[in-house]
Amino acid sequence: MTVQPALDGTIPEQPRARQQADDYETWLAQVWPVFTAVAATGRTFTTYEIAEEHQLPDPPNPQAHWGRLMTLLQEQGYVRKAGWANSSRPTTHHSGVRTWKGTAAARRSAA
Description:
This protein is of the alpha+beta class. It has 4 helices and 3 strands, in the order αβααββα. The protein has a 3-stranded antiparallel beta sheet. The protein is globular.
């Protein structure tokens, strides 16, 4: 792959390829504690932001499993829908994505 230098002559940093988990249950056990800890802070976030910050692997089926993770977290009372934002994922061209916020119950469970 050819990379075009920036105008100042530097080579832009290439996005890291994220690892992909082989099975859903192992992946879920790996990412669940990270997302519940983030929910306990009460911050508003997108799924991609957390996956990038913590260098989490992609699930076996990224198109379905990231959304399923957030549905499970919502059903368990850790997060609620907060709104929408433009995605920071490089491949989405700033399309709209759901934002999430940790619940008071998530904050209490972390105390």
